[in-house]
Specification:
Layout (H helix, E strand, L loop, with lengths): L6 E6 L3 H10 L3 E15 L9 E10 L5 E12 L2 E6 L6 E5 L2 H10 L2 E17 L3 E8 L3 E8 L4 H15 L6 E2 L3 H8 L9
Antiparallel strand pairs: 1-5, 1-9, 1-10, 2-3, 2-7, 3-4, 4-5, 4-6, 7-8, 8-9
Amino acid sequence: MTAAFECEVRFLIPDIAAFQARLAALGACGVERYAFTDHYFRPREGSWNPRTHALRVREWREPARPNELLLTHVDTVSAGALACKRSLLPQGKLRLYEGPLDECAGVCDALGFVPWLDVVKTECVICDLPGLGKAIYERVDGLGWTSEIEVDGTDPAAALARIRVKLATLGVPLEAVTDAPMAVLVAQRRGLLQASPP
């Protein structure tokens, strides 16, 4: 699910059965399943802000796909009480390399990066919501059930408006939403990062 200059927010799902029932009531269809582990890397030396940059190797488990070395660079855009993560790369996630896990890790090493954090996603589902686009939910080790809303961010103001509509339709209050990248959420839960100030 990658859109141009992707804008996205995430939220925890306290009751997965109720969330699935909501999706079904909205006419969700076209289910696609996936699972992968993202192996995040950090610089061997120097500063690195995981809230704005990520270098990771995506190890696909379902469906069978080649592993990918991905770079993301993001910023935050906001309107009122809603803030979202927006990619500063037109492709959203930039694929730097594709191949076996050890080769991808070798590219990271050549760039001066070392392993930092693994984010394991299982039981992941993408479905279509009539008139609203894609909806997803994922089980993330250490976090539980989560979802994200991702839209084209070419026009940030329009993206925020579309995100608001999707959140309202899904019954998700704004205070339940975060613009933090997944690696930051998992790292905070594991005590590897401090929470951002409000």
